[in-house]
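REQUEST ID: PR-0412
SUBMITTED BY: lab tech R.K.
PRIORITY: routine
TASK: structure prediction, single protein chain
INPUT:
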Amino acid sequence: GVWGSEFLSVRNHLSQKMSDKEPNRLFNFWKSTYFGVMCIVVYIPFMIMENLLSELEMANGFDSLGFYLIGVLYLMQMISSVLAVSIRAKIGLKATFFVGGLNLVMVILCQMAPSKRALIDDLDQESAFVQFIMQKNVCITIVVIGAALSGFGEGMIFVAMGEYISLCATESTKGFYFGYWWALYMTSQIVGNYVGAKILLQ
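STATUS: complete
OUTPUT:
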C-alpha cells in the first residue's frame, strides 16, 4: 500500500545517494604509487645522463656540444607537449607511453657512436661502415637526432603521465594525487643529480 510505496521511494533515494557517493580518498592509491615508483626507475638513468652529457661530449672531443644537445632536447619537449594530446588521441594512452619511452632512451643509445669514436686509436683499421659512422659530423648528427627524439618522447610521456594520474584520482583528490606523484618523481631528480655529481667528482 501507501507505506510500501513510501519505503521503496526512500530506499531508492538512499541507493541513488550511495551510488553517487565518491570513492574514498585512497581510491587507486596503490596504482599511483606503483606508477610513481616506475617513474623513479625510468628517470634516474635519464637524469644521470642529462647531468653527464656536457662533460661526456667534452671528453669525446666535441667541446660544448653537450650544452646544445640539452637545449635541443628541451626544445623538442616543448614542441611535443603541444602535439602530444593529438598523438594520444590517435594511438591511445598505453601506446603513447610505449612510443614516448622508446624515444626517451635515444639520447643514451646515441652516445655510443661518439664514445666509441673516442676509444678508437686508428680508424683506418676499422671497416668502411665504422669509419663512416665515426666521422665527426656523422657523430654530431647522430647525437643531435637522439636528443631531439628523446625530448619529443619526454613531452609525450609527461602529457600521458598527467592523464594517467587524473584517471587514478577522483575529482576531489586530484590535487593530492598530483602532489604525491610529483614527490615520487622528484626522487629521480635527487638520486640522478647525486649520482651524476659523484661520477663527475671521480
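NOTES: The CA atoms of residues 28 and 50 lie 32 Å apart.
REVIEWED BY: pending
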